[in-house]
Amino acid sequence: MLTTLSGGGFRTPPEDPIDGIGGKYEGWAPSPVHYILMHEPPARPYGCAGGAPEWYQWHYGQGNSDIADPKSAPPFFYSAVLFVDGHTAVHNFSKALATDPYYPYEPTKDWIWYKPASPQTGPRN
What is the C-alpha separation between 116 and 114, in angstroms, rounded? Predict the structure, then answer.
């Protein structure tokens, strides 16, 4: 399940907000070349003790690796990523995290995090 901040998350509800791609048939993921299957923590927010989110900078970072506010952090949110089609890449998620930390999962030209629910079916709970 992707971590969302209070009041945010997804601009379009995910088709499956609980399991995401887990347990789905081959071909379920839209654009397998862009759909993130696995990633390192700097790619997105993570919950921590007390409920406040944290972000992490592992690669190229100098100084503190635990970040409380991605908007004021250096732009080093690099993460290795495995995509559904099997290829790997390293992306800098800094712009997505710092621009709008409440909605970090919105699609870009380089990746997608979730399959939007169709208007006919809505999200599966």
Answer: 6
User: What are the C-alpha distances in Å from 80 to residues 16, 22, 52, 57, 121?
Assistant: 24, 20, 24, 12, 33
What are the pLDDT tens digits along the chain (125 aa)? 788 887 778 888 899 988 999 999 989 999 999 999 999 989 888 876 566 788 888 877 677 788 888 888 889 999 999 999 999 999 999 999 998 888 889 999 999 999 999 876 555 65
Amino acid letter, residue 102:
Y
The sign of the torsion formed by the CA atoms of 112, 115, 9, 18 equals negative
Cα–Cα nearest to 115, from 2, 26, 4, 28: 28
Domain-by-domain residue ranges, the chain?
1-116
Alpha-carbon gap, residue 63 to 66, rounded angstroms: 9
Q: Residue 21 corresponds to which tokens in the numbers above? A: 């791609």
Q: How far apart are the C-alpha atoms of 79 and 39, rounded to whole Å? A: 6
From the number of C-beta atoms within 10 Å of its C-beta (0-12, 13-18, 19+), residue 72 rates as: exposed
